[in-house]
């Protein structure tokens, strides 16, 4: 009788924990499950930044993004900062089968700055190719009522980019929403999660 735990048992024990998302990322056999697992992993990194926001108020976008990247690397995820993919990407994650996920980070100082980040991600960095159709706008927010900031960003984004479709909104519970638009580079759908920290 084999007393070694199976991957299914390990996965069940780690379910809902960072380790469960990491295991799901490394064992995923398609891009959709890989994106879902990666988003689960980065949530733990983001929550670490949020819990320690009193210590990182003076850090810039690069310092905060490097913190996210270093945590991902410790979990065996091929992540990097300032990697050249049609521009300098803040959080760049590569994986098997041509997987690419790009996060563009902005400290919220005004909505034009967030719009610049959206343009960078959606028109320059995003390839929109196979396994490369998801990214994230990471909004480091240093004002009160972050949900109001995110709602205003959502409203302004819809006005500035009429081709953007809002497909998921959990601002009131998770502080993010998701959009879809046709990638300028490929002409194929590209999905962006707009996550406020």
Overview of the molecule:
The protein has a 7-stranded mixed sheet with strand order 1-4-5-6-9-8-7. It is built from 7 helices and 9 strands; from the N terminus they run ααααβββββαβαβαββ. The chain has a domain at 60-196. 44% of the residues lie in helices and 23% in strands. With 197 residues, it is α+β, with helices and mostly antiparallel strands. Helix 5 links the parallel strand 5 (100-107) and strand 6 (134-140). It has helices at residues 7-14, 18-27, 31-51, 61-74, 111-125, 146-160, 171-174, and strands at residues 78-80, 83-84, 88-89, 91-94, 100-107, 134-140, 165-169, 176-182, 189-196.
Task: For this entry, give a set of tags.
197 residues, alpha+beta, seven-stranded mixed sheet, two-stranded antiparallel sheet, 44% helix
Ordered list of secondary-structure elements with their pairings:
Elements lengths: L6 H8 L3 H10 L3 H21 L9 H14 L3 E3 L2 E2 L3 E2 L1 E4 L5 E8 L3 H15 L8 E7 L5 H15 L4 E5 L1 H4 L1 E7 L6 E8 L1
Parallel strand pairs: 5-6, 6-9
Antiparallel strand pairs: 1-4, 2-3, 4-5, 7-8, 8-9
Number of helices: 7
Q: What portion of residues is helical?
A: 40-55%
**SSE pattern, N- to C-terminal:** HHHHEEEEEHEHEHEE
Largest sheet composition: 7 strands, mixed
Shape: globular
Name the quaternary structure.
single chain
Average pLDDT over all residues: 88
Class based on secondary structure composition and strand pairing: alpha+beta
- Spans where pLDDT lies below 50 across 5 or more residues: none
> Total strand count, please?
9
Q: Numbering strands along the chain, what is their spatial order in the largest sheet?
A: 1-4-5-6-9-8-7
Distance between the termini: 48 Å
State which percent range the strand residues make up: 15-25%
Q: What would you report as the Rg, rounded to the nearest angstrom?
A: 17 Å
